[in-house]
Structure prediction request, 500 residues.
Amino acid sequence: MHLILFIIFAVFCIAGAILVIVLRSPVASAISLIFVMCAIAGLFALVGALFVAALQVIVYAGAVMVLFLFVIMLLNIKEELITTDEKRLTRYLGSALGLAFVLEIAYFVRRGLAFGSSSLYLPVPKEFASIELISTGIFTKYLLAFEMTSILLLVAIVGAIMLARGKGRRDT
Amino acid sequence: MDILSLSLIVAKVVVIFAGLMLMVAYMTLFERRIVAFIQGRKGPNRVGPQGLLQPLADALKLLSKEDVTPAGANKIIFNLAPVITFVPALLTIAVVPVADNLILFGREISMVISDINIGILFILAIASLGVYGIILGGWSSNSKYPLLGSLRSSAQMVSYEVALGLALVGLLMVSGSFSLSEIVHQQSSILEWNIIKQPLGFVLFAICALAESNRIPFDLPEAEAELVGGYNTEFSGIKFAMFFMAEYANIIASSAVITTLYFGGWQGPILPPIVWFLIKVVFFLFGFVWVRATLPRFRYDQLMRFGWLVLLPLALLNILITGIVLVL
Prediction:
């Protein structure tokens, strides 16, 4: 049962990710990305990390992608504006980097296999990524990093508002 | 997982979703009759006794209508949008416990499709997905009024989601659990209902739920006086019906969630739990319809100002007060 669901979500993930790149229309790409986000949430839920799955949907699918869609629609980006980059260099470099990334993942999966168990099905610890576990971590061990991230986000928000406002004032 | 528990899950899904769909169908009649009653009219009362067959007639009409796709519309997304709106609207009910655990043939059966321990987050996650169908529906129509309507609607839903989530934080602090079953079990007597502990939180949540459902007084997305019909202008036949069924399913889900979180869910004396649950849900459905029949529409700037400058600070204040009370 788990395996079937895993395959379904994984296929959704990979197919969606390919569609994000292949599709010409920016809106269609964004929709594919939403499907990828939801499929990833499904994968999280499969390993019992329901909390992370919910956050994945709320933050990425529910908030970030809505803003993406907003920007795409408001700017009304046309298909021809983002046709493939004709520069050879970027294309080859991109492919090389992509290949390197895949090899990297393969290496770490292989190392994980050599490390202990002989199968990819590692036992998931009980209470894995539960709310208690994550919040205890955030508010004790990683408190400094957590607070610094929130300040970083605050700075980004203030900066975005300043940029948007400054332009408006010059116009009036 | 044995066959019995699998078939049990399937049975629960079928029964609860069938019940929801039936309620969606009769919600249309209920709303029209109540609004007519409030406005001193008769409402639809011709098809069947007291108009009870009206939803069937409506369904037949909408199914047999011509399905028009505007020229220049993005066909795939145009067809997908009603589905994307409709599916999340149905999902919320999956985590709402409709009755107490039932002991049947020596087996304990929980009366909820999926009793996950992050039920409240699941509801928020589903609520945050509801906006896509509206954005995409408006955009793919390739028409200016739907586009304006969908932009308004998405701005509204994104804004009110923030206050919706924060209004629930106070409740979470009081109950200490994300699980809806757990929250219902905590409210065993009327004095322990969360409405007593979280009056402000309840008002904020109810207002935000109303705004999320895009109904009067928050129905800016379909303000017919300015926008013809909003994001669903270009849709006809069954696709139009799907947008409306999604709206009604959302209202029913909101009523069920309010009942569960603040009014003790299925808890109640004498009558069986499912009956209490339905009584409470119908009470809030009536409330939704009453508000619709009574209040005028907000202006768009009033709506955004209300969301960000009134509801959001009040939600934060609610969290502060709850925190102080809990510490004292």
